[in-house]
């Protein structure tokens, strides 16, 4: 069986195999794996004797059932003994992915007396007398809460807070790796809007910002709006704003590649949930020509029954011709397709009916709305959310730099101006002289991305500021602070 799905590192397995020691044995293994549709990424000899060779063969597969099929086909080969199969993704998650590490050594009684009792009492009293000092004298200045109720985790749906933890841990790890921001998962065993708002408000004093994650629409809109009203620290729903920033950045460069202007294009967006809504609002803010929003109930249009408040707003501000048909019909003649919805909604033939020099962003993960291989036969630019395809649109390009910039200047809120500034910064990292159909967005590992985004955020708040330096406080933050606390 050869899978039609794309293998990825997310379903990487290592198979320990004993095979007869002849000249062609290793080649037979790799050929078998390749014929099964997997991709061999490593092969290591573990042990050998005159008659047998023990090897670890690592390969990327498409999903769990495909991995099982690869193993089965190996087991059916003559002279092959499969000893053990390890799922590399589960191995990486054993014991969790993050930990707390002390910034102070605590090697002596003297250090203990200053870090904890009795010395810490003086710091506590300084904060009690001037609560603003908490940002200088605690972890608040560089710490973000990653808050989720587990109601809309990736494409997995409402799987609950415990099952959401691996994603929130991963988010915290990304904050640290790419932005130098200390983040911590806060998963809540409730999906009641009032209770979530109350809990987040109650824990907010310990944090410099709140990152809402994987909370289902439309509740996520109300939760974010209410927290923004009640808190004096930034509240950022990454599923909305992080996605919108990255899509606008990628689209900016994609339009440069095809020689079109945003105000002249018609965009079709599949998925009018949190991400799709934020994308459309940001595109409208930038002056897009027209948008058709499509969701499970069809194209959002004026006169459509049983619409939520958010969908009604979209219907009132998009779809100039009030189109009410299906998704394949909506993209006929469209310049841009953006999918943040579900896999395999469109075919290559559908993409062929788009306008000349069309742009396709099929971002459903792990399987896009249209097979990118088929889309590339007709579209000028194709992007996905996958790390194994060109033009990966990934929120890690945005949120570490956005929070780095907001924390640097003690921002009290996240604004639309910040979103636009971040999108421009990400697009400009590539450079107009570097863009082409397969490079419209920088790599998530490009070291220039986070500093560029952070600088853009700082400038959007109050003009250029010095980069974050954990060892030195900006002079403005020292004003009025008790001398003894430093």
UniProtKB/TrEMBL annotation:
**Domain named Malic enzyme NAD-binding: residues:** 240-462
Q: Which domain of life is it from?
A: Bacteria
The UniProt entry, under InterPro entries, shows: Aminoacid_DH-like_N_sf, Malate_Decarboxylase, Malic_N_dom, Malic_N_dom_sf, Malic_NAD-bd, Malic_NAD-bd_bact_type, NAD(P)-bd_dom_sf
User: Could you tell me the keywords of this UniProt record?
Assistant: Oxidoreductase
Residue ranges spanning the membrane: these are: none
Where would I find the Malic enzyme N-terminal domain in this sequence? 95-228
Q: Which SMART domains match?
A: malic, Malic_M
Q: What is the name of this protein?
A: Malate dehydrogenase (Oxaloacetate-decarboxylating)
Task: Provide the species name.
Answer: Paractinoplanes brasiliensis
